[in-house]
Amino acid sequence: MIKDANILLSVINTYLRNNNGSLDDFAYENNVAVSDIINALNSIGYHYDNQLNKFILK
């Protein structure tokens, strides 16, 4: 998994936007736990919004 949370945020939101995928799909394809992604992005003030299908500021 990407160790820099800001880069991770960019990669995930780009994936979600361009591929119309889900957070679960991203985690599966990259062999990482959804909870690890959520925790990493929570640490920089972002949370996942299901309706928007992206991470946004809290």
In N-to-C order, the SSE pattern is HHHEE
User: Which secondary-structure class do the elements indicate?
Assistant: alpha+beta
- What is the molecular shape? globular
Question: How would you write the strand order of the largest sheet?
Answer: 1-2
Q: What does the average pLDDT come to?
A: 95
Major sheet summary line: 2 strands, antiparallel
Tally of alpha and pi helices: 3
By oligomeric state, this entry counts as single chain
Number of strands: 2
Give a quick rundown of the structure.
The protein has 58 residues and is an alpha+beta fold. 53% of the residues lie in helices and 14% in strands.
How are the secondary structure elements laid out?
Layout: H1 5-19, H2 23-29, H3 34-42, E1 46-49, E2 54-57
Antiparallel strand pairs: 1-2
Give an account of the 3D structure.
The protein is α+β, with helices and mostly antiparallel strands and about 60 residues long. The protein has one domain (about 5-55). Helix content is about 55%, strand content about 15%. It contains three helices and two strands. It has helices at about 5-20, 25-30, 35-40; strands at about 45-50, 55. It has a two-stranded antiparallel ribbon. A hairpin with a 4-residue loop joins strand 1 and strand 2 (about 55). The radius of gyration is 10 Å and the shape is globular. The termini are far apart. The mean pLDDT is about 95.
